[in-house]
Each structure stands twice: as structure tokens, then as C-alpha cells.
Amino acid sequence: MGTLDGRIAIITGASAGIGEALARDCVREGARVVINARRESKLKEMAREFGEASVACVAGDAADEGVIAELLDTPAQRFGADADLIVVNAGRGLRGSVYASTTDEWEEMLRLTVLGASRLMRAAAHRMVKAWPEAGTDAFEAKWKETVESGEPARDIVVLGSTVGRHISPFSSMYGASKFAVNSLAEALRRELASKGIRVTLVEPGVVRTEFQESAGYEMEGFGAFMDRVGPVLRAEDISRSIVFAASQPPAVHVNDIMIRPTRQEYP
Q: What does the mean pLDDT of the chain come to?
């Protein structure tokens, strides 16, 4: 019996790195999963590997409102129920500071990392709130009591932030600023939804070795030396394991915020 038996998850940015590792772990732990990324061929390959009975694919830009609507509609169409675990993972990095980074990449990074994440957080929250009786009513309290006592699945929105969204680095300050926004929005949404029984969990990884660094334009010789100095750095599986742990807690238990670094990473 898996720790996520009966759960239905949506994972954006699922074609590589943390998203791919999490999709794999969710299926292994008994969940059915809707995976999203721009690379449709990779998603279909993952679905064949994991088993198409457990995986649905929605290819496209995770910041696009049409794609977000399709993501939220697909679980009911494919699995007969709405998702109860939404993982806001898609985003992109950018090498450099406000002083030195490439300005023509700012808008795209902010569009996907901040606006796209915000749109999915909002849409997921509205869908989850609408599915239950109004908070504060007797009907809501009865539903909440039944959920807690029976051990029914919780309702989770998990947001991927970053350590640089709390401890800014001058060498990646534009990306760090985008994650400051995401970190703040996740905590604000947690406070707004807590009384409704919905858990919003912020996960703030330190250095994780994925294809993220190359796609963000990092100078890999220098960054590689940094990773060697603080290594071994985290793997995508380390972050996935932490998300599964948080999501598998009983409905009345909430791990609000997970900051996870390689043991030897002092900063950021």
C-alpha cells in the first residue's frame, strides 16, 4: 500500500528534474498523475513507462490560462475526480543580477516563474474551495470532521520556491527576486486557505543538480566548482521525497515550509 493511494496529482514542469522525479514517486506511491511540460514527446514517453492507466499528459506552457484550465479539468475526465495534490513546479532560472543579467530574458522568466505560478495557485485554490461546503458553516465542519476521522486524502497545493527566494544571492538576484515573490505568495495563500482545510506547502531547495543550470545560462565551469565545494549536492529525488512526505501527512497535520540544502551548502 502506497502512502499516496487514492490521491490524484497535477505536476507542472514534469518532463525533467524535480517534476519528473516527483511524477515517478507519486505513481510508485499509488497516486494517479496528470503531468505537464512543453515537451509532449517526453510526457508520452513517461506515460508509457509509468502506465497510461495512472498517467495523463497535458502538454503546453504552464503559464497559459488555457493550459491551466485543461490541467484542472483532466483529472475528472480521466480519473473520475478532481486533483487533490497540485504541484506548482514549472519555472525557469536566469543567470546574473539586476545589474548584469540579460534584460530581454526578464519578462519571460517572470511570466512563467511568477505569473504562471500565481495563475495555477489561484485556479487550484478556487477549484478546491468550490468542491466543499462554505467554510464556517455546519456543513463544512461536518465534512472536515469526517475527513479527519476517516483519514481521507487532504487537499494540497505544493509550491516550489528556492533558498535564494529567502537568502538573496547577488549573482542570481533576478531569479532570486522571482522566487521571493513565489515564496511570499505561497505563504499568503496558506494563511488565506488554512481555515478552509487546504494545505499550501512551500518547498525551498538549495543546490539541486538538474538540467536547470544549463537552461538558465549558468557558467557551468564556475558553478560546477561551487557544486564540487559544497557537494554532494541534492538530487531531484531528494526534493521529491520531501514533497511526498509532506503530502502524506494526515489531513489535520501540515508541514508548512521545507527548506532543504546539501549538508555543506552554507549559502545561499
A: 93
The structural domains of the chain, ordered by start, are: 8-260 (3.40.50.720)
Handedness of CA 30, 61, 154, 134 (dihedral sign): negative
Average pLDDT for residues 179-203, to the nearest whole number?
Answer: 98
Residue type, 2: G
pTM of structure: 0.94
pLDDT at 221 (0 to 100): 58
Where residue 30 falls (left for φ over 0; alpha for ψ -120 to 50; beta otherwise) is left
Distance from C-alpha of 243 to C-alpha of 25, rounded to nearest angstrom: 10
- What is the three-state SS of 164-178? HHCCCCHHHHHHHHH
First-residue to last-residue Cα distance in the chain: 38
* Nearest alpha carbon to residue 203 among 250, 156, 155, 169: 156
CB 26 within 8 A of CB 11: yes
